[in-house]
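Known limitations

Files may contain more than one protein. Parsers should not assume a single record per file. Below, a two-record file is shown to illustrate correct handling: read the sequence, read the token line, then continue until end of file.
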Amino acid sequence: MDSETLLARITDYASRPDPYPLYRELRETGPVVRQADGSWLVGTYYEVAALLHDPRMSADPRIRTEATVKPPFLRLDDPEHHRLRTLAMRPFGPPHSPARIDAMRGEIDRITRELLEPFEAGRRIDIVDDFAYPLPVTVICRLLGVPHEDEPLFRAWSDALVAAADVRPGENTPEIREAGDRARVEMGGYLVDLAEQRRGKPSGDLLSAFVNEPDPDLRLTQEELAETTILLFIAGHETTVNLITNGVLTLLRRPEHLDRLRREPELLPRAVEEMLRYEPPVHMRERVPLTAIEVAGTTLDRGTPVILVLASGNRDPQRFTDPDRFDPTRADNQHFGFGSGIHLCYGAPLARIEAQSALATLLPRLGTAALVQDPPPYRQNAMLRGPRHLAVQL
């Protein structure tokens, strides 16, 4: 088929259960492939890595649109990105040492065990609704200081924000964008109001830490506080839902690996890294050249959308041996599961701990569990790809 339709075919919902043959086609067509809408696709590992680390590639959507609203810092470039990311990370402890998250390991294990208590033999469960979604939402709400009774508010907001962030050409309708904008305003307003209630009354949570920062030069404005806490919520749970669900699906399809991990739980950290490579929670990222850039003999013009297909790079045989094989003992696994470069997902440390805790506690309970439906129904989003439901018969 015409290579110019690759993005449309990849983002077609019919491809959601298995986009990997299309990623193989992308890599075999060329490192850089022009699309009918004028955008470029890049799906080979080394080219994706180079562009993720190239300061001439912008994450800011305002480069190619008429938008004037400042995006969250995940979509900003340095130096503003670095400033806001540094302020957002301050409550977590010293650089490269997320002390607050490490201290939550015991709490995460406890929440995991509580969620799994109703999982009895013979019962049918939904891994997403009964486990993979409530675990990270509960954890991130505890970190932020959101009251337990208000946690249900965040599901509708989160779903609307994720739908509006998709890269599907022509399908991000005005209604979807408006719903996303409305959810962003409502969620941001709620979090700022909650934070303001803690001004002058430190309570140990992140919202309290942000509004009670003693150094005026290190305080977030209200707008920055809203965007940062929204991003923290999305980064702290959205990728984790997909990581856990994709991981369980992968293991139920390969019972020999599930049995081995049950016998050798010390392999779980490496297995989680392989899940991030093999079935990553984030499949694509969009960038825009600030100037003309040459990649593999092709010139990417300034302002032209470039879709970096991270999940394709994760299966590139030029980088990974036998890349279509799931290997929970794989070494040298520098995947794009959380991106790379300055915009590396800052929820990654939390997601890793949650996934390891979730699988360590869940695997012994799966026993001879069977998938009720394979492939399961997937969510609409092609960029943040994962099952919407994963029914399992225990």
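...continuing to the second record:
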Amino acid sequence: MISSLYIRVVLIFLVSVIGGTIISFFVSTWIFEEKLNENAQINIRNFGQDIVLIYKTIPLHEADSFVSEMKQLDSYHIRIYEAAGQSQSYGKLNGHKPSTVTMEQLKKVVNGGVVQDTPNGIGTVLLGLPLKTEMGTKAIFFETLAPPSTSFVVKWGLTFVTYSLITGSLFILVASIFLVRPIKKLTKATRRIAAGDFNVKLNIKQKGELGTLARSFEGMMHDLQQLEQMRREFVSNVSHEVQSPLTSISGYALALKQVDITDNKRGHYLDIIIAEADRMSKMSDGLLKLSLLESRSQQLQLVAFSLDEQIRRVVVAIQPQWSARNIRFNLDLKTVSLLADHDQLNQVWTNILGNSIKFSEDGGVINVSIKEDMKNVTVRISDVGIGISLEDQKRIFERFFKADRSHSRKYEGSGLGLAIVKQIVSLHQGDIQVESEPDRGTIFIVTLPITTPKE
């Protein structure tokens, strides 16, 4: 099996060109042969009729002398047959083998018939006509000799075919090099990417399919580079997030081994260990949840429910968080019925509202509104908290990303909440956007179809 694209391209071209050239040559030869024979038949018939007229007009010996001196004998060979089969020929054969005249053909012509045949291919015609003389009826046969132009055309055609194949083969060999070169570059680039090297430059400026393939490959390479960077950041973030509670758990567990600690300290240390273990458990659950959502292995349980009622229940459920800081809610919730996954969307509103509470100042206000059109429902959740910079807004839906690193100690969280929100909204074929300015608050805009299509 031929695996090299270069060899396959060359072979396909050669087979196509050679096959097409041969077929074209035979077809053109067949057409040319028909036309040439047709013209030859007309010419020899006219010539034969003239010769017969000569024999009718003048005496036999004078006609023989006249015919033997004719210049047309360079192109025609004449044979005059007696009824018994004896013949007399006129004209030089010049290496041409005369066609055989059968007794059947001879008898037919002597009896007044006409014989016309093309025995030797292109441009050769055998014509038999009855010839009436004072010596009785004879048979005169005319045969065209292969004209010099015919052999020249055949030789020229064969030469042309040979040189065209050689020239075409050279051209395709050169063209194939340029055709296969970008594919070889792509192959080398693929191997380097497989080895972990994403700093590959193709420098392929071709247009058409190969150019499109090269640009798609470069786009894929860029995406893989970003994915690799995200993977490294993910590993780093997980290590960091896990290391902090593990350090606390390990440190306070060692402290508990001391004999002289008071009961209050022991209880305090145990509370910290339990809190850190709970934090790790939540982070583990969040990672598992996000992994299931990203792999699309978690099916949506679609049910019809009241969206406004769901948001009210979430606000009531997280009341301890906002009432303790004197944060107020302004709810402008239009009655909307939605077909979606109730539990998944419950987590969406819990995460977004929890973030709004977390990053709001004490005594702040959070506004929640619902708008509906023919196909979609839009939920806007706005606060007047610390806000998010424009640069961070592009990454807030990445896992473990924390928008305000300067406050990372003040505001607890693993950075998985908004990543989970993004995946849940995407599973519902919706969209989530953020609008924010530092120190002026943040607005989350969630758009969902009223009826979520089933996969």
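Parsers that stop after the first record will miss the second one. For reference, the second record is described as follows. The domain at 208-291 is CATH 1.10.287.130 (Helix Hairpins).
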